[in-house]
Amino acid sequence: MSMGTENMSKSAKKHLEHVRNYMAKAIHQYNMIVPDDKILVAVSGGKDSLVMLEGLVALQQFGDIRFELEGIHIQVSDVPYQIDELWLKELAGQLGIKIHTVQIEAGLERRGKKAPCFVCSWHRRKALFTFAKSHGFNSVALGHHMDDAVETLIINMTYHANVSSLPGKLSMFDGALFLIRPLILLTDTDTMAYAKIKQYPPLKNECPYEDKTRRTTARQLIKNMEVIHPKAKQNLFNSLQHIDNEYLP
């Protein structure tokens, strides 16, 4: 079970507050949540989705916007990624939130030349959207943070010759469903520190394909940029909102 706040240091409590404040800031900045939204939280069991889940529950309890909130964990039978489901159910009970579990098969043996991460992600997204639409949810919350957005920018520019990334809020299916990313203003360092403070358990089995993707290469490139300039990651993220079309070819 995650650690309560009664025995935490002042610095730990301050960091938890920082993360939740920046989630609230992102939600306001991108207008992610409006009154009476019904939000489905994608809970992979990794640190980012757990931080997001706790933050959204806190916002639901103490914020000024009324909305419904439930979680979903999608199990992929042919990928050896495994979380502690018992712990997740206990956490959900502690938070007072319902967690759904859906089992799917990604068909990795039939993927051909497609990358396993792409195939697995496509099937998980399909299951997520199908569940959301069939159960009356109008928003799906994903645990992507600033690092993910900057890595996606680098990948899209390098491999696809396209300047695009992960928006804070995205309309899907002609407005029938919205994707929201409440962690978008936070970094991987922020969520890692939060997870350490709350003592989240490690995954039972990590994905064997995780370090074999373009994202890993982009992550290393950003680290190299930060050697040149410490604020490179933040500046790359901010640049997406400051595009001077007049000075582009």
Describe the overall structure.
- This protein is of the alpha/beta class.
- It has one domain (10-241): 3-Layer(aba) Sandwich (Rossmann fold).
- 46% of the residues lie in helices and 12% in strands.
- The chain has 8 helices and 6 strands.
- It has helices at 10-29, 47-62, 85-95, 116-134, 146-160, 188-198, 214-228, 232-239, and strands spanning 38-42, 68-76, 99-104, 139-141, 169-172, 177-180.
- Strands 3-2-1-4-6-5 form a 6-stranded mixed beta sheet, sandwiched between helices.
- Strand 2 (68-76), helix 3 (85-95) and strand 3 form a beta-alpha-beta unit.
- Helix 1 crosses helix 2, helix 2 (47-62) crosses helix 6 (188-198) and helix 5 crosses helix 7 (214-228).
- The protein is globular and about 55 Å long.
- The N and C termini lie far apart (54 Å).
- The model has no long low-confidence stretch (mean pLDDT 91).
Helix content estimate: 40-55%
Order of helices and strands: HEHEHEHEHEEHHH
Q: Tell me the number of strands.
A: 6
Mean pLDDT: 91
Poorly predicted sequence stretches spanning 5 or more consecutive residues:
none
What summary fits the major beta sheet?
6 strands, mixed
Number of helices: 8
Strand content: 5-15%
> Distance between the terminal alpha carbons, to the nearest Å?
54 Å
Count of distinct structural domains: 1
CATH architecture: 3-Layer(aba) Sandwich
CATH topology group: Rossmann fold
Strand order in the sheet with the most strands: 3-2-1-4-6-5
